[in-house]
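We treat protein structure as text, and this decision shapes the records that our systems exchange. Below, we set out a record of this kind in full and without editing:

***
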Amino acid sequence: MSVKITTAAAASGDCTSWTSDSDQTGNVKCGAEPGSATRTHRAVVTCLSRYGGGVKWEIKGPWKPHGRTSSATCSHNRAAMVVSISHEFSHHG
C-alpha cells in the first residue's frame, strides 16, 4: 500500500517511512547524521477504521534516536489500517 508522506524532511530523504504488518503499522527511520546525537524522532500515523464508517485517528510512536525505527500500530486484528505517515523531531540535551 502506498501511504502519504506528509513532511518535507520525509520527502527529502532524511527519513524513510513504510508500512508493515499488513498495513496496520507505520514506521519511520531517520538517518544518523553528524551532530544528530541529541536529535530524536517519532512516527505520527493516521489510522482508518476498516469498519464502522471509516473513522480516522492519529497515534504516535515512541521517541527514537536517529538511525533507529519508531513505529505505531493502528490495530492488531486488522480492524484499522495506516493511511498516512509523518514524523516529529525533538532535540534533547
Helices lie at 8-12. The first strand starts at residue 4 and ends at 5. The first helix runs from residue 8 to 12.
